[in-house]
């Protein structure tokens, strides 16, 4: 009986989450019959179209909807990747159509469950909270999600411009660059994640502790963000590989008039950072790599560029699943918003490099940390580039340093930059000191 009451509490939290304004709007337009199941308890959210059911046992639902879920239970994407006792049944296209709304429901239900909290009776049995009126869309948010940045956002230090690049196979094109800091200071080049752009780095580019020692540079990769395809482009799909990425970094540094730079990259940018240290040590001052994969197979999906699927919604859901649930809500929304704006096929084309081609083993033996110091920092909630994978890279490179970052996910510089700075500042300062000592 107690388990049945606990299951009903979760069902009611899921129902209230489905009544939220944005979720209800998505459900009203969903061309699938969506059912959520907690053991034998079921919640039918829509009834038209191909059937999609999401099933998990009660203990797994309780872990997933806890205020601080354990890594691997923070999202639908994480459950799909890491938990064999979790199941989504349905044809692949219908599941892809449901993915964004499923992530939103789980995220909202976590707030509902944390706010309601089962009141304990004398015997320790949870009291089932009464259902709210169906017209209510108010939703409590866990305290961790209400955390605000230490200071209000200000982008005043950032300057933007366009630079011309000439690239093999693409010809002449313009890329968008952003910079901040004193031009007399050493350069720190920030490489964005797959499918994104340099807006991911705004919080770090305006952080005074970094500006004191570094001139920070970031650019939108070709076809990304504000770097539009050239006018002579004939519509062929964007596809990235390691050699093209190294060429792009070289061409950008040349165009920006930068001889050498410290590399700070995240995810795909971290993979490119490893390649650049191995291929171009003469141009790298060192590297601080966030969420570096060893290999990250399985991240590419045909539904990231599919005529029947809203690519912006699916890409954003793909990203939301990798965020730490304790990161501030506004920051998490910023991370997904950037991905909702990507050009058709660009995210998938980047994953051809990050998920299909990249293998850290190809570069490990060619990185000399005496010449290019290396730090690797990875969030505990990352299942795309896990802490174990990044540690494996560090262990294979003599002199490399590794740090797991609690309460952070795959996009730390966007989702929680203030917390990231606790881990990023020490290696950034150490690298600046080592450069000063070489002069």
Account of the 3D structure:
This protein has helices spanning 2-18, 21-28, 58-64, 76-82, 92-116, 202-205, 208-211, 242-256, 268-279, 311-320, 329-340, 346-357, 387-396, 412-415, 417-438; strands spanning 33-38, 41-44, 51-56, 87-89, 119-120, 126-127, 159-167, 171-180, 187-191, 215-219, 261-266, 284-290, 374-379, 401-405. With 439 residues, the protein is an alpha/beta fold. The chain has 2 domains: 2-118, 2-Layer Sandwich (Nonspecific Lipid-transfer Protein, Chain A); 159-438, Alpha/Beta hydrolase fold, catalytic domain (Rossmann fold), CATH 3.40.50. The strands form 3 sheets. Strands 7-8-10-9-11-12-13-14 form an 8-stranded mixed beta sheet, with helices on both faces. A hairpin with a 3-residue loop joins strand 7 and strand 8. Helix 1 (2-18) packs across helix 5 (92-116). It starts with a helix and ends with a helix.
Poorly predicted parts: 118-150
Kindly identify the CATH topology of the largest domain. Rossmann fold
Number of helices: 15
Number of strand segments:
14
The overall pLDDT, averaged over residues, is 90
CA radius of gyration is 23 Å
CATH level-two architecture of the largest domain: 3-Layer(aba) Sandwich
Structural class: alpha/beta
CATH class of the largest domain: Alpha Beta
- N-end to C-end Cα span: 72 Å
Count up the domains. 2
Gross morphology: globular
Helix percentage: 25-40%
Corresponding CATH superfamily of the largest domain? Alpha/Beta hydrolase fold, catalytic domain
Share in β-strands: 15-25%
């Amino acid at each position: 009986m107690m388990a049945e009451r606990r299951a009903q509490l979760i069902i009611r939290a899921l129902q209230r989450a489905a009544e939220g304004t944005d979720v209800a709007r998505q459900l009203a337009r969903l061309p699938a019959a969506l059912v959520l199941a907690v053991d034998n308890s079921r919640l039918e959210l829509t009834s038209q179209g191909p059937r999609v059911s999401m099933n998990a046992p009660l203990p797994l639902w309780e872990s997933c909807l806890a205020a601080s879920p354990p890594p691997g239970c923070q999202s639908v994407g994480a459950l799909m990747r890491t938990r064999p006792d979790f199941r989504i049944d349905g044809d692949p296209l219908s599941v892809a159509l449901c993915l964004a709304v499923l992530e939103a429901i789980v995220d909202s239900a976590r707030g509902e469950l944390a706010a309601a909290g089962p009141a304990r009776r004398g015997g320790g049995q949870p009291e089932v909270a009464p259902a709210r009126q169906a017209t209510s869309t108010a939703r409590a948010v866990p305290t961790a999600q209400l955390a605000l940045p230490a200071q209000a956002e200000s982008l005043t230090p950032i300057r933007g411009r366009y630079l011309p690049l000439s690239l093999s196979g693409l010809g002449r094109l313009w890329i968008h660059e952003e910079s901040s800091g004193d031009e007399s200071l050493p350069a720190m080049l920030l490489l964005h994640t797959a499918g994104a752009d340099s807006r991911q780095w705004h919080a770090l580019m305006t952080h005074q502790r970094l500006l004191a020692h570094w001139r920070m540079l970031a650019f939108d990769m070709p076809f990304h963000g504000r770097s539009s395809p050239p006018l002579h482009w004939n519509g062929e799909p964007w596809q990235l590989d390691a050699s093209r990425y190294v060429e792009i970094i070289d061409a950008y540094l040349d165009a920006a008039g930068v001889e050498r730079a410290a590399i700070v990259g995240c995810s795909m940018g971290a993979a490119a950072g490893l390649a650049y240290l191995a291929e171009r040590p003469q141009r790298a001052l060192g590297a601080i790599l966030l969420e570096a994969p060893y290999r990250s197979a399985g991240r590419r999906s045909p539904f990231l560029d599919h005529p029947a699927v809203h690519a912006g919604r699916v890409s954003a859901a793909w990203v939301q699943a990798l965020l730490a649930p304790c990161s501030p809500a506004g920051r998490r929304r910023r991370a997904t918003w950037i991905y909702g704006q990507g050009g058709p096929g660009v995210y998938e084309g980047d994953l051809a490099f990050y998920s299909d081609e990249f293998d850290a083993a190809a570069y490990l033996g060619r990185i000399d940390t005496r010449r290019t110091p290396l730090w690797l920092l990875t969030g505990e909630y990352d299942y795309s580039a896990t802490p174990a994978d990044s540690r494996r890279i560090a262990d294979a490179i003599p002199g490399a340093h590794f740090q797991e970052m609690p309460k952070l996910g795959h996009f730390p510089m966007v989702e929680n930059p203030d917390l990231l700075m606790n881990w990023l500042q020490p290696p950034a300062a150490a690298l600046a000191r080592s450069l000063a000592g070489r002069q």
